[in-house]
Amino acid sequence: MTAFLASVSSLDEARLVADVADVVDLKDPEAGALGALDSDRVREIVRWSAGRHVLSAALGDLPMRPQRIADACEAMAASGVHFVKIGLFADAACRDCIDAAGARTPQAALVGVLFADQAPDLTLLHTMASAGFAGVMLDTADKRSGTLMNSMTEAALSAFVTRARAVGLFAGLAGSLREADLPSVLRCSPDFVGFRGALCEGHQRQGRISRDRALALARQIEPGADDRASTLNRLRSARTLRATSMDAHAASVLS
């Protein structure tokens, strides 16, 4: 079963979709592909959720500097979200950033984000798995260049999902996706599919989310109740399972 991730930028938006989406993703669409939401706003949503929803949060479009990435991960994890999404941009220090994040952030499961429109290095999947990451996703960095489907073929996306699972990571797909893209995306069997622009009026990712659009997307995904519960339990348990792995990794890196 594929879970439905909806990206929101405020408590009001979270309230609109929390009972529709499987994962409520916190990010600022005006601050880049993975713009970080203000920490006070993140904590406000975490308090409101009170553990009732699976929450993820984007770290921001940060430069690949290990110390900076690790500091930001630690701060975001302290907010109480379940997952912290880290943009992994092409850089010689990218592997060091993955190791640093894994060593410093045992209290939240990490999700590495690769960008389909920037020739993603899929060998990083092994690095993420070794560092104790919970999952990986493909997104697009340039939201003006089309959808995820314009950057990679359906066959390539399916291969990405298979490769991620082979090393123990759950896999997500996102990137300016529209409702019309769902049949192709769902055939790739990702663990979750993410939306922002398709949820907004006029398909403008900086616009206000429409609950009707969220409901329409949820109907297209149409998971069964048993499958939904199984997937959500798997996503939630990834936090605990990966925390144990990350603790062990941290001990080896810091020793």
The overall average pLDDT, rounded, is 88
Q: Return residue spans where pLDDT drops below 50 for at least 5 consecutive residues.
A: 245-255
CATH class: Alpha Beta
Q: What is the CATH superfamily? A: Aldolase class I
Please name the CATH topology: TIM Barrel
Count of DSSP H/I helices: 10
The largest beta-sheet arranges its strands as 1-2-3-4-5-6-7-8
**How many distinct folded domains?**
1
Number of strands: 8
Query: How would you characterize the largest beta sheet?
Result: 8 strands, parallel, barrel
The helix content is 40-55%
What are the secondary-structure elements, in order, as H or E? EHEHEHEHEHEHHEHEHH
The termini sit apart by 40 Å
Secondary-structure-derived class: alpha/beta
The rounded Rg comes to: 16 Å
Percent strand equals 15-25%
CATH architecture: Alpha-Beta Barrel
* C-alpha geometry: globular
Could you explain the architecture of this structure?
With 255 residues, this protein is of the alpha/beta class. The protein has one domain (3-254): Aldolase class I (TIM Barrel, Alpha-Beta Barrel). 44% of the residues lie in helices and 16% in strands. The protein has 10 helices and 8 strands. It has helices at 11-17, 39-49, 66-77, 94-104, 124-130, 148-151, 154-166, 182-187, 211-221, 225-254, and strands at 3-8, 23-26, 54-58, 83-87, 109-115, 135-139, 170-173, 192-195. Strands 1-2-3-4-5-6-7-8 form an 8-stranded parallel barrel, surrounded by 7 helices. β1 (3-8), α1 and β2 (23-26) form a beta-alpha-beta unit. α4 packs across α10. The longest helix has 30 residues, at 225-254. It is globular, with a radius of gyration of 16 Å.
